[in-house]
Every structure is written in C-alpha cells, then in structure tokens.
Design goal:
Two copies of one chain form a homodimer. By secondary structure, chain A is mainly alpha-helical. The first copy, chain A, has helices at about 1-30, 35-45, 45-50, 55-85, 90-110, 110-115, 135-155, 165-185, 190-205. The longest helix of chain A is centred in the middle third of the chain and has 29 residues, at about 55-85. Chains A and B meet through helix 8 and helix 9 of A and helix 8 and helix 9 of B. The first copy, chain A, binds a DNA duplex through helix 1 and helix 3.
Amino acid sequence: MGVAERKARHKTELRQEILEAARELFVNEGYRHVSMRRIAEKIEYSPTTIYLYFRDKEDLMFQVCEDTFRQLSEQFEELHASKAGAESVDPVEYLRKGLEIYVNFGLNHPNHYKVAFLTEPERGQESAKYCEADTMAMRAFGYLRQAVEECVVTGQFRDGVDTDLASEALWAAVHGVTALLVQYPEFPWSARDRLVAEVINRMITGFRK
Amino acid sequence: MGVAERKARHKTELRQEILEAARELFVNEGYRHVSMRRIAEKIEYSPTTIYLYFRDKEDLMFQVCEDTFRQLSEQFEELHASKAGAESVDPVEYLRKGLEIYVNFGLNHPNHYKVAFLTEPERGQESAKYCEADTMAMRAFGYLRQAVEECVVTGQFRDGVDTDLASEALWAAVHGVTALLVQYPEFPWSARDRLVAEVINRMITGFRK
DNA sequence: TCTTTCGATGAACAGCGTTAAGTCAAGGAT
DNA sequence: ATCCTTGACTTAACGCTGTTCATCGAAAGA
C-alpha cells in the first residue's frame, strides 16, 4: 500500500513548494503586492490549486510566518543551549542577548516582521491569531519571559518587579524600535546599532537594581 | 466677482465632506476594508469625483491622518501652555505627561494609528511620507524632542545622554506599547494602564540620574 | 473492464482602484 | 439673447483582485 504514501508525500511536497514560492514573493514585494495568481504562476499551477492546500491568502501568509518565526525560536534555543555549556552566565546579559536577537531577527527579515506585526488583519478574523498560545511567535515570547524570570528570581532586578509585566514591557520596547526601523528605514535615525542598544540598555537599567 | 468665491467655498466644503466620510469609514472599518466606491456612496457622489479632490486612496487616508495628528499636536501644545501657567514644572514629569498623551492618543484613535504607523505602504511610494519634516506626526515628534532636551539641559538625566538618541529611543518604546495594544487588543496583556506606565517608567528611570 | 476517488482546472462572480471620454449646466462675452 | 467656454461631475470601461463552483481526467480499487 505504498500508493497512498507516495500521494501523501507528493502532497506535502507541493504544499512546501507553494510555501516557498509565497515566501519569496512576500519577502521581496510585501503581502499586498503579491497576488494568488502570481504565486500560482511561479509554481506553474492553477490559482485554485493553492486553495486545496491553504484556506486563503491570509492563511498562506500565516504559515509562511510560522516557518520564519520558528527560526527565531531556534535562535533562542541556541542561546539557551550555549548557556548550558558555559560556566555561569549573568542572567541580565543573557536577557540582553535575547533582546538583541529579537531585534536583529526583525531587521534581517523585515517583510516577515511587517506581515506578522505590522499588517492590518482581515476583518472578522481574530487579529490575535499570531498571539495564540501555540504559535511560534508566542513560543518566542516564552523564552523572553523565562529570561526575565531568571533575572527576577536571582535578585538582579529591583524589588517588586512583576515578571509578566516586565516581559510585556520589554517586548513592547524592542518591538517598537524594530517596527520603526523596519517600517521607516528612510527616516534619519541615529545609527541603528546605537538606537537599538539605547532602547535595550535604558529598559534594562530601569529594571536593574 | 463673488462667483468664484462661492465656487471655491463649495469646493472646500465638498472636500471636507469627503474627508469626514472617509474618516468615519476608515476609523470604524480600517483602511483596507473601505473602498472608494463606498466612500462615494456615503457622500452621494460618483466614485470618480473623489479623484478630483485627492490623488488616490492613499492620499485621502494621509490627509485624514494629518487632520488627526493635528489633534495630537494640539494636545501637546495644550500641555506646553499649561506649563507656562504653572510656577515650576519638573521637566521629567512634563516629559512623562507627554509620553502618556502620545500613548493614549494612539489608544483612542486606533485606526488612525494603524494607518499612520502600521500599514504597509504602497510599493514605490516613499514609506517615509509620514516622516517628512512638515507632517503633523513629525511636528509631534518635535515636542517630544524638546521635552527631552529640557531634561538634558537641566541636568535631570545622566551624563552623556544624547538628546536625539534618547528622543528616538523613547519614541520607539512608547510606539511599541501603543502598537501592540492597538493591533492585538485581544491579547491577554496585563492591565493596559499598568503596562503603559511600566514602559514609560522604566525608560525614564533608565535615563534619569 | 467498470466504477470510484480526488487532485487539478477553466470559467465565472463580485468587487477593487483608477482612468478616459463624455455630459451638461452655469458664467462670461458679444 | 445668443454663442462659447469653463469645469464640475458622471458613465463606462480596463485590468486587476480573492475566491468559488462545476467539471475534467487520470489513477486506484473492485
């Protein structure tokens, strides 16, 4: 009964092919400027075929972003793993590195970041789709929260710092600088590195004892 | 020769009517979900008439946002004026109030905020349109910078704080929290007020002596 | 060989932003 | 009073869009 398996394999392959074509177009041209017909053309299938694999255009983009944010999670995991190897790591420095990874990830994948966080969602669809517990973006947020908690329990942070509140505030801050740099690259910002470091450092200083 | 004047008056009236209809639709339903045809229907004119008054849909939205951000500038001016009346004002508290005004403005005009800062711009058009020097948004940023400078020159901030860098960093932080709250209102954030205050307070603490 | 299954498609729908050509009333000129 | 011009406005259309539905056709099972 290898037939069903071969078919299934082909199905997942085609699905992957669609995802890759869509990713390339979305990343280079942005969500709004890519049509289903162009994606179909790129993979040399009919536009309707895509709908056999993805509910609609938004779902397709969501899956593309999931793949990308999986990479972000993996970078966090690498960081986590490197900590296990080292002798002893300053929890605050660990947190700082995580925040830097986050911002750099956004700067290196601007269109994914735009779509995931800077695109007006379709009406009626929950805007919080990317925020649901089982998404890659939320998994990444989990790493951030963990790093913050480490700072709290080891007494690096001031008394009374709430882990959840602090995590959200830090996320908001790094999201802010990432979003502005990604969306308005032409704006005469101070040097990117300096600005990113400034946001991260000032926030951390605000929390640190 | 009152004829030309009457015509000109009628023209500006109709222009205003279009702006108001567009504002209501955009604010209630979001940029992407409002069509030129629906705006035209609302004002009981043909869709093409709108193009006699605005270059295209994006230009129309830009003008709507300019009107709204003018309100933000006015709120900053009010704050500035209230300072002139008072005996002596702590520059840091003045800055904090400005930041709070900014965030609350975004939370009170979520769709304007989305369009101005969270909408993927059309291809080929400069994304930095809202960032050009003569826009209302940039005028508002000028107020922020001024408030930061006041903190720097009165010695409220740590040594070596760069006014431009600090202004951008603060803007990034408040933009971040505003953007996340506006875009993902369903996310189980900590209480809005607390989160906003956390971001602002930690940043200010990071700068303050 | 006949039937069923199901992935893929062509044609179509309703809507979009935008443009070119045309209409028609009002104002100025003779 | 008639003609001409101006210009605000509309009608019709173009080339798109995302999406759906009925249909086709090849491969698998009976």
